[in-house]
Amino acid sequence: MNNIIKGFRTVQAAAAGQSFLANITSRFHVSSNKSLLFSRDDLKNPSSPSSATASSAATTAGAQLPPIKKLQQSPFSPLSEPHPRLAEFVQQAANNIVNNPTSTSTTTSTTTSTSTTSQTQTTTQSSLNFNRADTTTLPNGIRVISQQTNENACAVGLYIRCGTKYETPDNRGVFNLLEKMTFKGTKNESTADIVQKYETVSNNAMASSSKDIMQISVEVLRKDVEYIMRSFADQITCPLFQQEEFDEKKMDAMRSFDMLLSSPDAFLPEILHQTAYGDKDLGHTTFAKPEEYQRITTDTLRQAMQNYFIGKNIVVSATGIEHKHLVAYVEKYFSHIPYAAPLQTQQQQQQPLGNSDVPQYIGGTNFIMAEPKSEQAYYLAFPFKGLRSLSESKELLAGFVLQSLLGGGRDYSTGGPGKGMQSRLNLNVVYRLQQVKVCSAFFNVYSNTSLFGVHVSTDEGYLIHALYLVLEQLLGLRRLITDEEVERAKRQQKSMILMNLELRNVLCDDMARQLVSTGIWRSPEEICSGMDALTKDDILRFLDNLLLTNPTVVGFIGDKDKALSSDDIKKVIRSGKFK
User: Fold this and answer.
1) What is the separation of C-alpha 466 from the centre of its chain, rounded to a whole number of angstroms?
2) Is 6 part of a structural domain of the chain?
3) Closest CA to 209 of 250, 168, 160
4) Residue 109 pLDDT > 60, yes or no?
5) Is the dihedral of CA 277, 281, 287, 293 positive or negative?
6) Going by C-beta distance under 8 Å and a sequence separation of 6 or more, which residues neighbour residue 108?
7) Range of the domain at 544
8) Do 368 and 241 belong to one domain?
9) How far is CA 555 from CA 374, 425, 565, in A?
């Protein structure tokens, strides 16, 4: 019975298939001696022999053909033909360049007032001034820098020269709390209104503070830039600092300090700076101790704002907006901010933007006892000049190239090419010793000083072996380095710079930090050309200058491990012997 039912269903399926094929045949005019779809000429000329054959075949199949409509000509121009107004557009652009030859200059321009040109002229000039930064200094010392882009979205940032470097024993932790109190209520807006507005118009809104810079940044559409400027001005001039919100953020800061102590990767860099510069200036940790946070009040915050949120310390940076519009917004909402603090001396008020004081470098050794069976972490650093030295020489650029050349890596890493997997520290330290977890070169650069060094992390009992491999690379670089390696490191460093600057928030940040740290802006072309001019001898000269200094050494070291102190490192460098 089952076989009979299956046979009956097979007959039904075959009949249905024939009916389906008949419909397909009649619909597409299938002919035994023609292709499935006829040519366009057959459709245009129904009386042709081939069309008649098709009609006969379709009639034989029992199909009733609908009348064929004549195809209408498309109103659009073919892609293979140039647009009729293209030549006119090209000629108009060429005339604008001839009539305004100065508009294509790539140098940084400095303006003192808002432009009064017409909208048409502004649009044409802005389209020719892409990839160039325009700067303006307002009468109260605030600097404005912007760069026009094709995007309708803008990255906007407010940068202030302040941070833990400028804290005193009486207000340790004040700038970290000021960062956490950002985007809170002001005299003009409540906290709820600010949060709701930013959620509506912004993206990537953030506030952060470091050792020498505090920033507030956001990404918005061009139409919302004015609101952001008004909001930024309110944040630094008329915050409410409500006690309940302040107490909550103070508790957050204390928890952040506890988290810092439990993370060697985050805590050791802070200890490194403290050992290198002492317990002052750059030696101040980013997070204060809980008892130091307890001493801070809202009056402490207001006093710090009065002393540091002043015109000569402020830079406003943006991308994707015409410079004259940004300057107008800053003049409207920031012009009442004073140039200097009321109690500062005349000499301090005349100090240019950018730090002129050089932190005193000390150096030395600081080992902390690690937990049993935990990873051993070690930092070795040497001092060098800061960003402001770029106006005198290109030595600092050699440091960035050397960092790429040494490179580094981890015992387990995901990703593709371009991560420095073929760099010296990765090939000759990480790959040679299985117990090495991390080994990489770092370069922490500030306005007037920098720290160049190597970070190593290993399993318990293997740190000393990894350090010998690291020193072998540093001391043997003079006889091992090749011109090919130098060129590859230069290309890698330049590609990283240019790739990162494609992000509008990175571009905005780079322009502002250059102004805050050095007082001027250097284009990517200038930086890359400086790297192109470097030779192998320049890299080795930079390395020689490092090795002549007093190193700084910090680490988490266990009972079963050995580590080289600062004095041990100097002996190895002088003798060239590891044991």
Assistant:
1) 32
2) no
3) 160
4) no
5) positive
6) 132, 133, 134, 135, 520, 521, 523
7) 364-575
8) no
9) 13, 19, 10
**Calpha distance 441→405 (Å, rounded):** 9
Q: Which is more confidently placed, 385 or 117?
A: 385
Beta bridge partners of 159: 215, 315
pLDDT tens-digit readout, 334-370: 999 999 998 754 445 444 444 447 889 999 999 999 8
Same domain? 161 vs 242: yes
The token pair at 152 is 């309708």
Note whether 155 and 193 are same-domain residues.
Answer: yes
Q: Give the mean model confidence (pLDDT) for residues 416-437.
A: 83
Query: Which residues does 83 contact at the CB level (< 8 Å), separation at least 6?
Result: 77
**DSSP secondary structure of 445-466:** E-SS-EEEEEEEEE-TT-HHHH
* SS3 call for 131: coil
Question: Are 237 and 308 spatial neighbours (Cβ–Cβ below 8 Å)?
Answer: no
Answer whether residue 94 is part of any domain.
no
Buried/exposed code over 88-111 (b: 16+ C-beta within 10 A; e: otherwise): eeeeeeeeeeeeeeeeeeeeeeee
- For strand 133-137 and strand 109-111, is the pairing parallel, antiparallel, or unpaired? parallel
Q: What is the pTM of this model?
A: 0.76
Residues 409 and 288 in one domain: no
Q: Is 9 exposed, middle or buried (0-12, 13-18, 19+ CB in 10 A)?
A: exposed
- Quick one: 409 and 296 in the same domain? no
Helices H / strands E in the chain, number of each: 23, 13
Domain termination site, one of 323, 349, 375: 349
Q: What is the CA radius of gyration of the chain?
A: 34
Is 80 exceeded by the pLDDT of residue 227? Answer: yes
Same domain, 427 and 544: yes
Same domain flag for 268 and 371? no
**Cross-strand partners of 109:** 134
Least confident stretch, 51-65, 271-285, 312-326, 530-544: 51-65
* Same domain for 388 and 339: no
Structure tokens of 486?
């130098």
CA 425 to chain CA centroid, Å, is 25
| Domain harbouring 122, CATH code | 3.30.830.10
Residue 16 has pLDDT above 90, yes or no: no
Domain limit, last residue, from 320, 349, 378: 349
Tokens of 197: 């507005």
Q: What is the mean pLDDT of the chain?
A: 82
The token pair at 8 is 């009956």
Average pLDDT over residues 90-108: 55
- Strand, coil or helix: what is 365? strand
Q: Flag whether 1 is in a domain.
A: no
Picking from 244, 454, 239, 223, the residue whose alpha carbon sits closest to that of residue 321 is 223
106 neighbors 131 (Cβ within 8 angstroms): yes
Cα 450 to chain center, whole Å? Answer: 20
The identity of residue 404, as a single letter, is S
Residue 239 DSSP class:
B
Question: What's the domain count of the chain?
Answer: 2
Cα–Cα distances (Å) from 95 to 89, 92, 99, 100, 121, in that order, read 10, 5, 6, 8, 13
Separation CA 95–CA 99 (nearest Å): 6
Residue 49 is assigned to a structural domain of this protein: no
